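TEACHING EXERCISE
Course module: macromolecular assemblies
Task: Read the component lines below, then compare them to the predicted structure of the full complex.
Student: A.B.
Group: 4
Components provided:
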Amino acid sequence: MKAALCQIRPKLGDLDANFKTHHDWIDRATEASADLVLFPELSLTGYFLRDLTQEVALELNDPRLEQLIARSADGGPSLVIGFVERASDHRTYNSALFAEDGKVLSVHRKVHLPDYGIFEEGRYFAAGESFDLIQSKHGNFGVMICEDAWHLIPAWLHYLQGVDALLIPFASPARGIDANTAELTSQRAWRTLVSAQSLFFQSWVLQCNRVGYEDGALFWGGSIAADPSGQTVIEAESDEEELLIVEVDPAATRRARDFAPLLRDAKPGLVRRQLARILDDRDALRP
Amino acid sequence: MPKLPAPPQCHTELATKVLCGFLREESHRAGFQKAVLGLSGGIDSALVVELAARALGPENVLAVAMPYRTSNPISLELAQDSALHAGVALEVVDISTMADACIDQAGETDSLRRGNIMARARMITLYDRSARDNALVLGTSNKTELLLGYGTIHGDMASALNPVGDLYKSQIVALSRHLGVPKAIIYRPPSADLWSGQTDEEELGFTYDAVDALLVRLVDELWSRDQLIEAGFATDFVDGVRQRIRINQYKRRPPLIAKVANRTVNLDFRYARDWGT
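Instructor-supplied answer key:
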């Protein structure tokens, strides 16, 4: 299975321009024989939306979205697309849809909404409530959006459900230029995350960041993929637009899991019992 | 007393890349190819002109030196060196007539008011060239100055894009060395140049290295007051700097608007400046 990571530069709040960008990049990915095309977080809208959030929110039956979803039909690649989802009850979500064979197989609504520092997602979005496995013709996928990947449990839940590859659209602004290396602090952190997730969960991990500045903040690109043994297999060379093609080999997953049967030894029942006790005993930990 | 912690560092190549990308992308999406900035003969503007020349091409950058009659003549010479090194055109505008018209009209003034008038005369000159040349005004206020409020609101603090506002003075020095800013500028004591012999560090009462070491811990690394004092910073210094940061917050924010409607500009009418681009 070949996956394409589309490290694009969305225009802030310009849906028409961004729809066109998506069609163009799906063309490019198709030329590269990609089976799965992954776009960054909020790829259809840009990131620092603030009061634009409601304006650019799309219902799943939006004709422009349907046209894009249709690109996955008739032998087209499966698609992961970031957008602001307007639910029927008018809550807005930071979502990523998974489209295959012309249909939406799943919509992941970002669960962990950062609302600190430069981030204001809690102000604008409702939080998603689950991490559901996507059973695609290309394998089992688990989508986590950006901050979701800063928690271990979402990927573990996908792991228990049988995930082959974790798909992580994100939008990470640059910070930290004060170290000795020519690498942003934020980039080093994300590189650590991709290794950690792939090692812990013996799965392919595909992370797709965006590029470009918004109000002074740089989205630094650096899209990256790691195999189930924690090795980086490809990484964007720059903070410019870039198309990355990753060969996702299921045999690598089998080898990693045969070598160390961590999934066999996972203790979800223990976690359930102990978590129940912790939640009962400690009110402070209740969500 | 323990040795004081070090001032913040900066990876010069990475910083150059991020800041040049910022200047290029943010000016182009605002619809501008060109930039204009004031060159004082000091290090901050000398650094910004280097960055702008790299980001936009030297032919798209206009530097303006704006001496007042009491300015140190060396400042103009250094501004010329800096423009030459960056390869950009330099326009010299003597602001004496303009500033004196305001100063004479104002009656009895003190050095603070005269300094503010000069800073605003320079701002007027730059924004006029901005309209004339279709060029964005670049800011040169560094993070140390912004936090301490050591600048004139609507004067030197006015700009459209500021590439160095998140760099402390000590980082400005490191980056300037990297980009080849003339040594005479780098080693010159920072000065507002209102009168001969004036220096920032004398006026502020502390060195930039000392205050940067404090600020980076206080602002960026979230140290508490007690931790800072324990690390060796004098109590008066810590409290004085915290006080300066607080009382100058107004300079860093747009004016307060009396809220009476549902959606008020900047309070709950909130859009990025890069909206739609």
